[in-house]
Every structure is written in structure tokens, then in C-alpha cells.
Amino acid sequence: MSNAAIGVLVMSYGTPESLESVEEYYTHIRRGSAPSAEQLKELTDRYEAIAGGVFPLRENTDRQVSGLQDKLDTAEPGRFRCYQGLKHARPYIEDGVAAMAKDGVKRAVGIVLAPHYSTMSIASYNKRALAEAQKHGIELVCVESYHLHPSLIEALAERVREGVEAVSAKSGGADVKVLFSAHSLPERIREAGDPYEEQLLETSRAVAEAAGAPRWQFTWQSAGRTAEPWLGPDILETMDQLAGEGERALLAAPVGFVSDHLEVLYDLDIEAMDHADKLGVAFGRIRMLNSDPLYMETLADCIREAAAKLPS
């Protein structure tokens, strides 16, 4: 690829590369404040619980970046060059931008592996990327959201249809209710008019309609442990309520996430599954997007559209 190629900064939250790097990762999340021994043990135990401490998010992200590069090359050979930038692990967002600069990239597009915009999530990624790009004289435009892209909705609807069928079979033919979910954020985003919650509801409505799944509701998961209130109810509370109302089959559809990672493999596959067993409710989860061709197509479309806004 030539230096005239447009850089693509593919950003995501990041994950530790090994159990030994969990403390460094957790300290970065906590803005330089080291976790207590108890906090560190709790997080390390969770990673050990998902397949003995395997770190699938890092591998998934690598595959997503590679798959996106292939999709862009198929559409426009040699025009784009993908780089990775992580929020809380190496290579950091700033590292990804610096790598672009080292390769002589002058124009770039930034995109986050999360479909829904929030001032507390996507905006923070983009702010860091734009600040670093300015230091290096790189013209950067950032994608803000892609929560209603037709290929994204199609991929998620396919997963919901197959998930409903599997949970129905598991329950002996019970009617399945779909629980769309996403990572909770502090409640104060509502007062600020943040679009995150509404975009998630828009995605959920579109997916439910495309999947032919009229019985659904939205819930939250994976809230942070801070003194301020977070958006709720949590999925475990929602499961309690629905079981009390007689629901016997539930499908988790975490549309706020795109990869197999801790919030899915632990919070849903272990914690929520155990909770469902105690409630006597059949429970399942949709397959994550990971590097699904339709998801790669979604990202590639958004990148090409954003690149059209760059000065020539």
C-alpha cells in the first residue's frame, strides 16, 4: 500500500493480554489508581472463569481488524490501511495514530467497534484520536454511530431468530421473550440528552421487527460499581420480574456489544445463566457478531462514507 492510502483507526475498549497484565489494565481503567487486592482478585477470577483465563476479546479484535481490511481491499484495493487503537490496553489509541503518522498517512477515518453513540463512550474515543491526529498533522474524520445500518440489523436479526428457536427447543416449546441489552452507563446521561439509550431502543425495535420477534424488552447489564446511580434495571432484576410473571424462556440479545468478551462470557453465560437455573427459566444468548461478514460490511460502508468527507 502506498502512503497515499487512507488510514483507518479501528478502536475498541481493549482487554489484558494475560492474567499477569490484569492489574495494569485495571489501573488504567481507574485512571491511574491501582485496584485493591480484593478488586483485583475479583476481576482476575472472572477472567479465569471464562475458559481458564483466555482473552478472547483481543483475538476477536485482531480478527475484526483483519476482516475489515479484507472487506475494504475487496471494495477498493489499496485505498485503505487499517490500524488498531485501544482505550485501555496496548496499542492505545494514541499508539495507533502514531503508527499511521510513521507510515506517512495524512488522511484517516476513525471508527469504534460499538454501534451506539454516547458522550461517555464513542465521544471519548474520538476525542483522543482527534487530539493525537492533530499533533501529527493527520486529517481525521470519525464515525459516530451505525446502529441502524441494514447489514447490522440483518446480522442481529438472524441471530435472534436462531436464538429464539434454540431456547424454545430447550424449554420444550415455550414462548420465548427476547431481552435486548447493553452496558449500563450512569443515569446522568439522560439529563444531558445523550442519544445512547434511544439508539439502543431503535436498534432493538428494528431487530425485533426483522426477526419476527414481537415479544421483547430492553434491559441493562454490567453496571459499574460507583456511588452514583446507573441505568437499570439490570438483566438479573429483569429476569426475576419476568419469572415472577410466568415467563419460562428468555433469550439474551446483547446488541450493545459486538464481540465475545467478559461482559458476555461471564456476565451472561455464567452469571445470568446460573440465575436462570435458580429461577427455573430456560435461558440462552445470541451469537456475537465478532467478524461476521455482514458486520464487516457495516463497518466498511461507514468508513467509505466517512472517507468521502476528507479533503482530497
TrEMBL record:
Give start-end of the signal peptide: none
Q: Which family does it belong to?
A: Belongs to the ferrochelatase family.
What UniProt keywords apply to this chain's record, in alphabetical order? Cytoplasm, Heme biosynthesis, Iron, Lyase, Metal-binding, Porphyrin biosynthesis
Give the EC number.
4.99.1.9
**Pathway of this protein?**
Porphyrin-containing compound metabolism; protoheme biosynthesis
Which positions are annotated as binding Fe(2+)?
H183, E263
Which PROSITE patterns does this entry report, sorted A to Z? FERROCHELATASE (PS00534)
Q: What class of enzyme is it?
A: lyase
Q: Its Gene Ontology biological processes? A: heme biosynthetic process
Subcellular compartments: Cytoplasm
Keyword Metal-binding applies: yes
- Keyword Iron appears in the UniProt entry: yes
- State the protein's name: Coproporphyrin III ferrochelatase
- Report the protein's function: Involved in coproporphyrin-dependent heme b biosynthesis. Catalyzes the insertion of ferrous iron into coproporphyrin III to form Fe-coproporphyrin III.
Give this protein's Gene Ontology molecular function annotations: ferrochelatase activity; metal ion binding
Q: At which positions is Fe-coproporphyrin III bound?
A: Y13, R30, R46, Y47, Y125
Example GO CC term: the record gives: cytoplasm
Q: Which reaction does it catalyse?
A: Fe-coproporphyrin III + 2 H(+) = coproporphyrin III + Fe(2+)
Native source organism of the sequence: Paenibacillus albicereus
Pfam families from the entry? Ferrochelatase
Q: What is its main location?
A: cytoplasm
